[in-house]
From TrEMBL:
Species assigned in the record: Paraburkholderia phymatum (strain DSM 17167 / CIP 108236 / LMG 21445 / STM815)
One Pfam family recorded for the sequence: Phage_TTP_11
Recorded coiled-coil stretches: none
InterPro entries from the UniProt entry: Ig-like_fold (IPR013783), Phage_TTP_11 (IPR032495), PKD_dom_sf (IPR035986)
Annotated protein name in UniProt: PKD domain-containing protein
Amino acid sequence: MKKAISAQGTKMFLENPDAAPIATGLLMAGSVSTPCVVTFDNVTKMANGEPLYITGSGWPSIDDQEWVIQNLDKTAKTASLANSDTSKETATWNAAASYTLNAFADVCAQSYQINQNPATTIDTTTLCDSEKTSLVGFRDPGTLTFDFFIDPTDPDYLALHDAYDDGEERMFELIYKNGAVRTLPVIVQSINETGGVDQAVHGSATLKITGSPILTQPGSTTPPVYALTVDVAPASGVAPLSVTATMAETNGTASQFQIDWGDTTAIDTVTGSLTKTHDYAAAGSYTAHVTPTVNSSVLAPVAANAVTVS
């Protein structure tokens, strides 16, 4: 099936990992959930639909991969990672977890076309088996072709050629006029120039789509932000120490809380209550993290005060 879409009012950008990144920083926390919600140290240069490279969290399900930002909350400094699943992670979040937001090159597209092909059916009937059998392959993610008109010495055009030369996968963004963003992984397959005028060239480029596109809808009016604080008392004592976590909510009510007590014991799930007791069996310093679920959305974990057990 062939789908042609006008590029009027649409801007297109190709990831440029060779340029200085837009932003780098630390990830303060991550939720054990689907999708994962992370907390940033700074979100001033971030936007929904942008791909983010994560490393060092200690969670194999998200480390050393790129994830598309959605549901960005600049007040709480949190965002969900589209299509991520950290629900089976058991390790403690690493305080050295970091992110990189790579730069993007404007490909100066005038129009574009996405071509997608249906899954292929292969006849596997044999002479020894009269029953009709077949195998159905995976659908081809397709290709994206765009036309451009650009100065051939423009750094963004040179970045497009670099992507073709190295053949590495990059993220491609289509930012629509209404603010929606489609983000998809691509490999630059070909670049063709057809001539131009006044130090500019016409041409086209074809990108092989290598995975599922992610569509991030434009933002709407932001409701009051849910907030949670957690107090664990007593804050110190002799082992074994029994403590109580008390959750205080504003601008909403969580349907459940998941409490990671920070001592490698199993995570507690709390529903219908704002308090939970726990015993710290050994001496040490512990910080509990509470992950609330609000309106069916898993939010970023909130750190409680530290507890010292002697």
